[in-house]
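Hi Y.,

Following your request, here is the sequence exactly as I used it, all 394 residues.
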Amino acid sequence: MNTYPSLIQDQKTFNCLIKDLLKKPVVALDTEFHCEKRYWPDLFLIQLAADGIGPVAVDPISVKDLTPLADLFAEEKVVKVLHSAKNDLAILFHDIPGFTVKNLFDSQIAAAFLGYGEQISLVNLVHSVCGVKARKMYSMSDWSARPLAEGQLEYALDDVRYLVQVYESLAGDLKKKGRTHWFNGESESLTDPQTYVTSKERLFSKARSAGKVKSGSFPLLWMLLNWREEKAIVMNRPRFYIARDHLLCRLAVLAPKNVENIRSLRGLPGGFIDKYGNDVIEVANRCLNNPPSDVPKIRLPRHDWGYAARKDILRIFLKMKSKSLDLSPALLLPKDSFESILADPPKNLEQFMTRTDLTGWRKEALGPEIVDLLTGKLAITLKKGNSIKFIKVK
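Below is the corresponding structure, written out as tokens. Let me know if you'd prefer a different format.
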């Protein structure tokens, strides 16, 4: 057994820890960070554990060079176990140059394929799998404070203390149910660096939904959103610190020609005009003189009866299908894919299988049934006892 202090605060010990972890088949990891009042989250603790090692915590305030961690994540032979990995990985991708991920196991995703629910917490999963109730007292701790309280450190270490055991149980269950390849397919995006690049198109769609913006105002809204993003990055502040979505929408509709026009808006945040008024006018003038050509295409909601009926029937189908598979409907078909299929339903199985907005396991799980449903070959019936069933139509 390798003996390390529960909190590592020097580079040499950290480097030795990573060398020892590279010899292990499975390593658990978690992080503690703060994202309030920041564009980029600040990393304040890294917890690690493996069979015979730890759990230990690494203090990134004292240990300045985290690049050895990149070697661990790049090692194909070592399984890296994280729970709800996306936020942790986003920080590591940003903070560590050349960071890559291979052989990742997200215990939350694995649990979703085993009937635990789509977003089970680590506390509840550890309790279900290991029979251990983790402490919750320090969940809202200030992780930037030094020194860390003993109980605070133990709370953080609990996040990786049982993760290897959880991995062994879930990986075995996935294999028994024949869903390992489903899990692998769903996890692929987590290892792709592009997953952690901000999608301005998604931000634009979300912002547009916050207010009544017609297509004629889309160019200015797009330019204001880009202005806000650049400002937030430079200032290292959350987007809402500059302007919330609904304010961007109101400014886009107003298309102000001078600062006095902006003053006519009700409910402006205090100091907004003094801080950003001239910036907004400059953006509005640029948009007027040189409208952007890269405004994202927005799929506007449809209101015809046929579309609404198809949407309701598809929801019922997904609810029944997900129940039979012991999966949540949102996992089986995420919202974006749901809307995409409604807007452009496949005419046959070949079209469905070539869709790029669906992972392979979803195509396998939904397969011919969803195509039959959308092409009128499946009908919904109400049986005795009010049970619903889909039947094949000849």
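The mean pLDDT is 92.

Thanks again,
Q.
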